[in-house]
Amino acid sequence: MTSFAVLISGRGTNMAAIARAVARGKLDARLKFVASDNPGAAGLDIARKMGFPAEMLDYGKEGRRGAEQQLALLCSRNNVEWIVLAGFMRLLSPEFVAARRGRIVNIHPSLLPSFPGRDGIGDAWRYGVKITGVTVHLVDEGVDSGPILAQKAVPVRPCDTLESLEKRIHRAEHGLYWKTLAGLFSGVPASERS
Ligand code: GAR
Predict the structure, then answer these.
(1) Does the annotation count 108 as an active-site position?
(2) Entry pTM
(3) How far apart are CA 108 and CA 169, in angstroms?
(4) Which residues pair with 152 in a beta bridge?
(5) Would you say 4 and 160 are in contact if contact means Cβ atoms under 8 Å apart?
(6) Architecture of the domain delimited by 2-188
(7) Ligand 1 touching residue 110 (CB < 6 A)
(8) Ligand 1 near 133 CB (within 6 A)
(9) Over the range 20-50, which residues count as b (16 or more CB within 10 Å of their CB) and which as e?
(10) Among 43, 72, 93, 150, who pairs with 136 as Cys (CB 3.0-4.6 Å)?
């Protein structure tokens, strides 16, 4: 069975949706650990409560190089094949990505390549788009770039506020991410994934 780790920086609602899919047997894979660069990440507590090991990556003391060495060690000790980024707000180094090319996945709350970066939902909202959405993609050396695996459109309704749009985008993320991972982990080609 495929083993994976999830990296988070904050609330961890995407991580929780993935962990629930694992716990319910919908995502046939082992979630070995959840790790964060942020000691205050609410998602770490959620992971612990769900019974998954929660690890800290010490970017503060060790810098990116040290934190990535720590992560690489955790991955090799746990035989982790895939790294799943779920609101992980650090850029992984080109060396780290190159050593695991095609094995790191990310979710972003916009229809990439539009509105990459830290505030995809707000940027799309302020631009005034009528359709936005969610993208799951493989990670390369760029920011929210790399081959697209799946997308889901979310229309902006005339009555929307930024908050109501955010809610629908997060709901779309929570459904799309684990389903895309299920296809990826079982080796279903991208062209056959929805
Ligand atoms: C999610 O909306 C995710 O798509 C976004 O951070 C949020 C994390 O929420 N990621 C990015 O913007 C990456 N550029 P969560 O911690 O509740 O899963």
Answers:
(1) yes
(2) 0.95
(3) 10
(4) 134
(5) no
(6) 3-Layer(aba) Sandwich (3.40)
(7) no
(8) no
(9) ebbeeeebebbbbbbbbbbeebebbebbeeb
(10) 150
Report phi then psi at 3, rounded to 5: -115, 140
Strands 131-138 and 148-155: antiparallel
CB 86 near ligand 1, within 6 Å: yes
Q: pLDDT category, 2, cuts 50, 70, 90?
A: very high
Per-residue pLDDT reduced to its tens digit, 173-192 = 999 999 999 999 998 654 56
Which residue puts its alpha carbon closest to atom 17 of ligand 1? 13
The structural domains of the chain, with segments of one domain joined by +, span 2-188
Q: Which two tokens stand for residue 181?
A: 């991972």
Atom of ligand 1 nearest to the CA of 169: 2
61 or 10, higher pLDDT: 10
DSSP E strand boundaries for the chain: 3-8, 30-36, 54-56, 82-85, 104-108, 131-138, 148-155
Ligand 1 centroid–CA 119 distance in Å is 9
Quick: pLDDT tens for 52-105.
999 999 999 889 999 999 999 999 999 999 999 999 999 999 999 999 999 999
